[in-house]
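Lab channel / #folding
Pinned by the channel admin:
"Please post every new chain as: sequence first, then the structure tokens as a reply. Keep commentary short and put observations after the output so the thread stays searchable."

First post following the new format, from NK:
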Amino acid sequence: MSLRERIAITGVGETAYSRNSGKSVLALQLEASLKAIDDAGLSPKDIDGIIPYSNSAVVAEDFVTNFGIDDLRFSATTPLGGASCVAGIQAALLAISAGLCNHVLLPIGRNGSSAGRIGTRVQQMPQFKVVGEFEMPIGAIAPAQLYAAMARRHMELYGTTSRQLGEIAVSTRHNAVLNGNAMMTKPITIEDHQNSRMISDPLRLLDCSLESDGGAAIVVSAAERGKDMRQKPILVMGVAEGHPDSPSSITQRPDMTRLGIAKAAPKAFAMAGVSPREIQVAEIYDCFTYVVLCQLEDIGFCKKGEGGSFVESGAIRLGGNLPINTHGGLLSQAHMVGMNHVVELVKQLRGSAGKAQVNGAELGLVSGYGDMGDGSIAIMRRG
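Reply from TO:
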């Protein structure tokens, strides 16, 4: 049985993004969720499935209580860090296709700037146990330190340069300037990138994503129901997740430049029945600039080792062959664990992305990246 186009994204919602929301994480998630539910033309009681973000204290029961949901028929979590949101779409697909529910809410909300910083929470996550025992004692504590080794290895193998990573930061910032709901709105240049302070060699400040307060949510519905809802449905053509070799330690895997999405992407494209060259817009998880470059290679937009020249060519800019992170991404809009990437792709395919709209975009892709290299990917089209 094919699962292609069995579900659709029918509603999206976001709060304002900031450094200090002044609200609880639950309040942020409820606000974003209500916006997504209203966008879909539903009432809160129509939600019969919930996939809350696993690294949050907010659970499905909080939505049952606050929304007055009479019969929550499905709940689950997808604990893949930054790959969780897109992997949650796959979980929703399975639940809806099995007949368990009709409308699944995927909420995310965090006070990642004003409350607990992610670097201080890493030690508490079970998936980082190996790193905590063997690598943190010698100084590898923060995510930038863990991923810097991956970037350096790519540079040594393929000649990738810091200026090429800077092209990703500059392009993403340009898109954020066009967005009415982005934290970073001042344009930057390659020289600004090169002059930004070193965080963990070779990653500079402008190679690193933001820490943000805010919330985002989507509603996933059965495709048949989506035909009669408020918004034009955005059909999910293919979706998959993948896990890297040696998933608990970057430094111990055979190839430090190969991510879990290298395993997921071929499955998603096969399910969707399209190829990378047909994608018109892509929202690529961007916790660090290098992670974007590596995903572009592993997804199949360019060959391994050619990511640097690919981004340097201008291909990823608005007007290029593959505009990416048209909202500003985690680097310049906000760090919502990638749910803002899903929201942006839906807007692009609806044709409602404002000043950063990619002309004629009907087929797009969104990726997630989590923990030590877990990957998730969804390919969507306008219904």
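NK: The radius of gyration is 19 Å.
TO: also worth noting, The mean pLDDT is 94.
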